[in-house]
Structures are given as structure tokens and as C-alpha cells.
Amino acid sequence: MTSPDAPRPDVNTLDYEQARDELAEVVRALEVGGLGLDESVALWERGEALARRCEEQLAGARDRVRSVLEHADDPPDSGSATG
After folding, report:
1. Does residue 4 surpass a pLDDT of 60?
2. 11: closest CA among 53, 59, 56, 43?
3. DSSP 8-state symbol, 34
4. Contact 26, 52 (CB under 8 A)
5. Per-residue CA distances from 79 to 10, 73, 76 (Å)
6. Does residue 14 carry a pLDDT above 60?
């Protein structure tokens, strides 16, 4: 994981994979421990923001898939009537 003092990109600019990877690093750092209270809380807050970002990205993907599936059964618009 990068140094705690290193500037980190705004969570809202991260794509799903970037947010997920950084979240995994945050979890590892918190599990290892050895951090001060302030640093641990800051990491926890960053992790919460990263988790929300991942959820937002997944919700957007889920909505796109749902939209495609809803229209998958629509008949093609051929412009001619049969019958």
C-alpha cells in the first residue's frame, strides 16, 4: 500500500477495479494493525468511501444489464406487418 502521507486520488474518480483494489489494500492494512488510532480511523473512512464507490459502480452495471435484458425480447422493428 502507498504511504499514508501520499496523496490519494478522489474516490469519485476511481473506476470499479481501482476502488476494489485499493479497498483490498485498506482491509489488509487494517488487519495487519500496528497503526495509530487516527491513521486507523482515516483508513476506515477511506475504506467506507471506496466500498460505496464499488457499490455505485456495481449498481450502474446492474441497471445497464437489466435494461439490455428487458429489451432483449423486444421484436426487431422490421417496418412490415405480417399476417
Report:
1. no
2. 53
3. -
4. no
5. 49, 17, 9
6. yes
Q: Say whether pTM exceeds 0.85.
A: no
Distance of CA 66 to the CA centre of its chain: 18
CB 21 within 8 A of CB 56: no
Q: Which CATH superfamily is domain 11-72 in?
A: Exonuclease VII, small subunit (1.10.287.1040)
* Domain residue spans of the chain: 11-72
The Cα–Cα gap between 14 and 55 comes to 12
Q: Which residue matches cell numbers 474516490?
A: 11
The upper half-sphere exposure of residue 49, i.e. CA atoms within 13 Å in the direction of its Cβ, equals 15
